[in-house]
Amino acid sequence: MLAKKTFKNQITIPKEIVHQAGDVEYYDVFYRDGEIVLKPVELRLQGEHLERIRSKIKSLGLKEDHVKDAVRWARNA
Known about the structure:
Blueprint: H1 15-21, E1 26-32, E2 35-41, H2 48-60, H3 64-76
Antiparallel strand pairs: 1-2
């Protein structure tokens, strides 16, 4: 597909490509081996990832002692 750069250095991504990428708002853009690459990026609020981990731990019924035992086991492995 062909895309044209405007005088303000903007490029419109064709609908077909946007549709394939899904609901993406941000892209990491870099130049590699003669190509401009757009990589979808999902931004999260600070602490959101930690909250998801805590929720998963709670749903599994894990307690603080379980985590301590797992860390001890991993350090001895």
